[in-house]
Amino acid sequence: MPSYTVTVATGSQWFAGTDDYVYLSLEGTAGCSERHLLDKPFYNDFERGAVDSYDVTVEEDLGEIQLIKIEKRKYWYQDDWYLKHVTVKTPLGDYLEFPCYRWITDEKEVVLRDGRAKLPRDDKTQILKQHRRKELENRQKMYRWKEWHPGFPLSIDAHCHSELPRDIQFDNEKGIDFILNYSKAMENLYINRFMHMFQSSWSDFADFEKIFVRISNTISEYVMQHWKEDFMFGYQFLNGCNPVLIRRCTEIPKKLPVTMDMVECSLERNLTLEEEVKQGNIFIVDYELLDGVDANKTDPCTIQYLAAPICLLYKNLENKIVPIAIQLGQKPGPENPIFLPSDATYDWLLAKIWVRSSDFHIHQTVTHLLRTHLVSEVFSIAMFRQLPAVHPLFKLLVPHMRFTIAINTKAREQLICECGLFDKANATGGGGHVQMVQKAMKDLTYSSLCFPEDIKAKGMDSKEDIPYYYYRDDGIRVWEAIKSFAEDVIQIYYESDEVVCEDVELQAFVKDIYMYGMRGMKSSEGRKRASLSSLPQGFPKVIKTREKLAEYLTVIIFTASAQHAAVNFGQYDWCSWIPNAPPTMRCPPPTEKGTVTIEQIVESLPDRGRSCWHLGAVWALSQFQDNELFLGMYPDEHFVEKPVKEAMAKFRKNLDEIVSAITERNKNKKLPYYYLSPNRIPNSVAV
Known about the structure:
Elements: E1 3-10, E2 21-28, E3 31-32, E4 36-39, E5 51-57, E6 65-73, E7 81-89, E8 95-104, E9 109-113, H1 126-142, E10 145-146, E11 155-156, H2 178-188, H3 219-226, H4 230-239, E12 247-248, H5 260-263, H6 273-278, E13 282-286, E14 310-315, E15 321-327, E16 338-339, H7 345-386, H8 392-397, H9 404-415, H10 422-425, H11 432-440, H12 446-449, H13 451-457, H14 470-493, H15 497-502, H16 504-517, H17 546-568, H18 571-575, H19 598-604, H20 608-621, H21 642-666
Helix pairs in contact: 2-20, 7-11, 7-16, 7-17, 14-17, 14-21
């Protein structure tokens, strides 16, 4: 009688094994096997990290194996089991791989197809079509869209982490408990003695060193030593943790009435301000989005303030970007003076501190939360809802969606919810952050997620004109590597543009993102601005070509990996020195010049308690996950075909070359830029 050898691999996570009854049945083109008992209690099979083999004998040949069914029946108590994959050796000696990489919970069963990726048109038999359809029907019941706040991208329908489908939960929920992690961070940083000292001001700048962890030869120490200097202020717009706001200024806005007399002493080329603008030497950062946002009122003992500054910058003869004018409000007038480098030292310093504080708010809520976390969650939910496990695009994308829904759900549960941790130290807590996301949605265009297009739209694409923009340089390299990988995979499964058009599951995935995730709103179409008018507007409703599909997949993977890494993992480096990134300000912006004192500046900065919560937050957010998987690392073998594995090897080789180039460039630099080095880019948004 024909005999099949079945090898079962159990995951290595804690509690991944099972002591329950486990059954297996095979379904082929010529028939089905009986239900075979593989394991029963106390046999010690299916333990954590184990690989177990069994011989399954059948009455007659089953033909080509199409499906295998794994059933788990409870013995005593709930015993979830993480099944990695099953290998079947046929009587003819052929090996078939059946990827799973899922939890089997309660008394559930899973039906698996072999690991060869298939488009909908590739399924010819009714049984395979039915399996594909049923999988999506079940997923769409589990992964439901929900509006967390009006105007937000839609998110998962779950109130807390424990309500999520088991397959997307963290292996260890304690590991991502924000309250626990922040408290641990403050303990590790030896600052927990200050954490309850709200309303208690620091005495001077040096006093902040009591909570500053001095690690020699690091960016954070360099920032602490040089934060007051104009070159350091300007450098952060290029290579800090929010390097996305600066744009070339093509015309001085009327709301910023800067005159030649004001800035003449800052210009070095013997040109007028207008001529400097025409030559492309003037840059601008506008925090208009903060205008009208409500400041945090959750603590009646501390009044907190926000500003919406405009900052004008200049590329000097050393090609350094330095500030030349700062206005702290959007409406010009006598009580909204333009601060200049030639002003009194403390006037100028406080103006720069206000810009840094505003930059922190935009970074946390828009650059980081909205444009990486929430956008990646949309991609993730749509993927689970519309792409079955056998689809090549599911196999391509699923490593880049790892734990994203889970971390966002935990954030809504503890961090950005009403009375959450965000309210403790941030001036945009208490609802201001919600207003900011709602306002920022109008600028969340598809083109702004296409990295090279966005850089070009801001006039920041010339390496010759702006030579020290490492975020741009490294980002372009990583973007191109991801795009090349996506193109290689597309070439394997989509032989023509027609095949792309006919892929109903792909089109449903794209439509789900547009209609539900991004709300199908006019905001997703973007605003017609002069600087963006040449770019394609809007999230696509359909994908018609392989070229467009490659770009679309690159947007998804780049956003979830590289973009998140660029704006997340530098937070401790750039924000741990509190005066360089104040999470709140306790005095209003100055309305006149010549009155600012060092005492006023210190009173404006966060108190001891808020400083400690802020420091704990940026430390915790800057840490990699345990067993982090970095870009190009795919230990879960969803793909089994040789051409795809060759494409993965090529991708890793390209990434290794980028790592080498970045490492070489960073040698002997006092301010190395490594956030977009692929060996420091996690595959997904998971922290």
